[in-house]
Amino acid sequence: MAWELNSDQPIYAQLAERIRMQIMSGQYPPGSKLPSVRELATVAAVNPNTMQKAFAELERSGLILTQRTNGRTVTEKPEMIREIKEKTAAGYAELFFRRMKELGYTEKESVEFLRKEG
What we know:
Largest sheet: 2 strands, antiparallel
CATH topology of the largest domain: Arc Repressor Mutant, subunit A
CATH class of the largest domain: Mainly Alpha
Number of domains: 2
Strand order of the largest sheet: 1-2
Strand content: 5-15%
Helix content: 55-70%
Oligomer: single chain
Number of helices: 5
C-alpha cells in the first residue's frame, strides 16, 4: 500500500519524516538495516531518486549511516534517537497547547482535556 503523501511540502521531506518516525517508534531499532532505496520507493510508490534524496537528508542528520558493503543502517546511538524523539514530542506539545489557547482553553484546562481524552 502506497504511503499517504500530500502536496503541502516536498515529497522527499515527507518520506524522510516518515522514516524518522519509524526509527523513533522502534520499527527500525538502533543498528538495524534499512530496506534498500528501491524497496522503499516501491512501497511508498515514489521515484527511487526521491527516496534517495530522503535518505540523504537522514544521513546528514546522522540518524542513518551508509556502509558500502552493508547498505544503510540506523545509528547505533540510542541517545541520539531519544533526543530527536524528545524534540519531536516537545514540538507536538507546543503546537497542541498553542492551538488549545487559540480555542480559548487555559493551560490547566488543556491538561485536564488530555487526561480526560487520553
